[in-house]
Design a protein that fits this description.
Elements: H1 3-43, E1 52-60, E2 65-68, E3 75-77, H2 79-84, H3 87-92, E4 98-105, E5 113-116, H4 117-135, E6 138-147, E7 150-155, E8 158-163, H5 176-184, E9 190-199, E10 204-208, H6 209-227, E11 233-242, E12 245-249, E13 254-258, E14 279-288, E15 293-297, H7 309-312, E16 318-327, E17 330-335, E18 340-344, E19 365-374, E20 379-383, H8 392-401, H9 412-419, H10 431-438, H11 443-447
Parallel strand pairs: 3-5, 13-15, 18-20
Antiparallel strand pairs: 1-2, 1-4, 2-3, 4-5, 6-7, 6-9, 7-8, 9-10, 11-12, 11-14, 12-13, 14-15, 16-17, 16-19, 17-18, 19-20
Length: about 450
Amino acid sequence: MDFEEHTQQQPQQDDNHDAEDVARAESENHAEDFAALLAESFDYQPPRRGEIRQATILQIEPNEIIVDMGAKQDGLVTTQDLERLDPDFRASLQVGQQVPVYVLNPRDSEGNLIVSINMGLQQHDWDAARALLEKDEAVEVTVTGHNRGGVLVNWRRLEGFIPASHMVSVRAGLQGHERRDAFNALIGKRIGVKVIEVDQDRRRLIFSEREAQREWRAQQKARLLAELNEGDIVRGVVTGLRDFGAFVNLGGADGLIHVSELAWHRVDHPRDVLKVGEEIEVYVLSLDREANRIALSRKRLLPDPWDTALERYYEGMLVEGTVTNVVDFGAFIALDDGLEGLLHLSEMGDGSLKEPYSYVKKGDRLKLRISRLEPEQRRVGFTQRWGIEETEADRERAAQQAGEPGEEVGGAEEQLVEAEAEPPAPEAASAAEIEAEVAPPSEEADEA
């Protein structure tokens, strides 16, 4: 064979080798595909009743929807299921859209695979409800009705229930038509709640408005604490009265006015100066951002009666005050402007009393005279032994303070002393009594 014949046969041999390679590769690919199909046939799980699968919408008809759910047979969504869907959601469905479907019947009498989009969506909602329960998060629900135990609500596509004991919008203790009217007023309204129980098998979804309200208040208080500053003056509504003080809502969170910060005079109980529902201005005393506490004051916004005490009062002046507390050694008296001092037992009546309880009680209005006035020490003493009948000196001094024309009254105190008999010296007071007279009224005096 010469060179020319060899070169002519060489390409032909190469083509033969290429064809063999292609055939070999195709055979190998077919083998791999067959193996894959065989493996898939073993892995394939037919749809089971109650199963949730993701499906792709293939066809939308007025009375049914066909979906591809990765099975050997397409799924059928029936008219009954479509009618249960929200109209807006149903109108938004498109070919190619993925939706969750619930397998109702893997094979009906006609051999169809029946699935439900509505129940598939509900399954997602049950999963979301369990997630809310685990995360302890709040959501909003719509009230749809009520029964003897509480209110019925809708959340997404699920029906839920709020027990009456977990309601905040309806006041506890209501009975009969009042309770029914309160529940009826909630229908159609949205309220914040937390999930407290999820039982899909029993289709039981329980919410609590009380738990959500507690968290909401904590969030509001944290927000207020971030915005408020000590020294701010804000408005609020009195929400509760306790022995130790008053709670004031500042717009979603409560602050506390301690009983000692309610007024300049002694306050035995907050109800003596405030009532629930009253709107007041308060002064921000302190903020504890770690403990989420807001301390408020009412008296800081009221005039301090001690600042102008010498302008309005003098020793020997006849005044009228209210008994705020009775102790073994006397009674504390508050004047109408908040100035408060002690009427010692030895200065009551004619000075012969052995105990004060049979003579005065809390709330009594008494006429008495100022026996000692020391604004620098915030101290005032009272007496009834100098006489409690109004004298000409009292009237002239009152007219002079009011700015009315009249004769000069020099030394009204001296005239008063001359008009009245010299009071006998009081009996020696105990150390506790002296301390109570010297110190401004406080809770310690109550305890004494």
